[in-house]
Amino acid sequence: MNIISGSSNPALAQEILTALQKLDSSSTLVPVEITKFANDEKRVYITDEDKVRGQKICLVQSFSTPVDEHVLETLLLVDALERLGAKELTLIIPWMGYSLQDKVFREGEAIAAKVVANVLSNTFIDRIFLLDLHNPSIPGFFSVPTYHLSAKQIFIDELKRTGQLENAVVVSPDFGGLKRARSFAQSIDAPLLNIDKSRDLSTGQVTAHALHGGEVTGKNVLIFDDVIVSGGTVAESANLLKKEGAKRVTFIATHGIFCNDGLETIEASQIDQLLVSNSIAQPAHRLTQASKTNYLSLGNLFAKGLADWL
Do 189 and 109 reside in the same domain of the chain? Predict the structure, then answer.
């Protein structure tokens, strides 16, 4: 199986390839040119057809900023791969942009996640891998085989390595994340607590009001969530937990969007550590300036997911 990368996260695509080569030494990277015409239209050109024709291909593309551009680029790459005679196509979407728009909150809104799923399902794609969606029912929007992976074990392994599971409690940052946090707490045999949080729908401002379910005094607190958007939840949760006497606060989230000054907000908060995956590529300055943030690789996780189709 050969790997081709969209422009959103080439570093992760390379990590997947490196891990995949341990299972299939013949796997290689398919070269592609991704540019724009003068009129701002996207142009993709796969430069080595021998690595595509009659081959199993895996396309890696996060639907991260600029979201619309990366979705369209994916569709263009899929079409190009089909026209070159790829035998089979697997799509890995480490972060599925539009997945937070999974229901109608007001009459007149679109279910954007379903729209994206419908578009992808009506292409040459044979199967799709998704990761830690906010709503685990989203794979049902697709009409091609879709597999929902979890990065939970990657985080647990890192916490074990750094000794953070000792005297630990798990906290859900809000009531909506209780099911997700409960699964994590059960996996590490730790107590589960939750924070009463509200969000101003006009400004987006997050306020953490109170802690429910137990004590955190002198504890290593692990806050578990699926995605960080603005960083407000991270900062507010950390501040509340430190006031409640937490010894150390680690926030764990699979996806780090960090809108606007999100990462700066987190760095200025009372959080001790932030663990996120590399599902979304980060600008170089964020990687060097974010002293509290550790990025964990998804390469092995996705390579293992692909193993049955090599």
Answer: no
Which H/E stretch holds residue 55? none
CATH code for the domain of 175: 3.40.50.2020
- Give the pLDDT band of residue 261 (cuts 50, 70, 90): confident
Dist CA 63 CA 154 (whole Å):
22
Catalytic, 197? Answer yes
What is residue 286's three-state secondary structure?
helix
Q: How far apart are CA 248 and CA 262, in angstroms?
A: 21
Residue with tokens 């540019």: 35
What is the residue range of 69's domain?
A: 2-150+299-309
Whole-model pTM: value is: 0.93
State the total domains in the chain.
2
What is the per-residue pLDDT across 206-243, written as a single tens digit (0 to 9) for each? 556 578 878 899 999 999 999 999 888 889 889 989 99
CA–CA separation, 31 and 113 (whole Å) = 30
CA-CA distances (angstroms) from residue 23 to 145, 149, 192, 211, 308? 22, 19, 38, 46, 10
Cα distance between residue 54 and residue 190, in whole Å: 49
Q: Are residues 146 and 156 in the same domain?
A: no
From the candidates 197, 219, 243, 304, give the one annotated as an active-site residue: 197
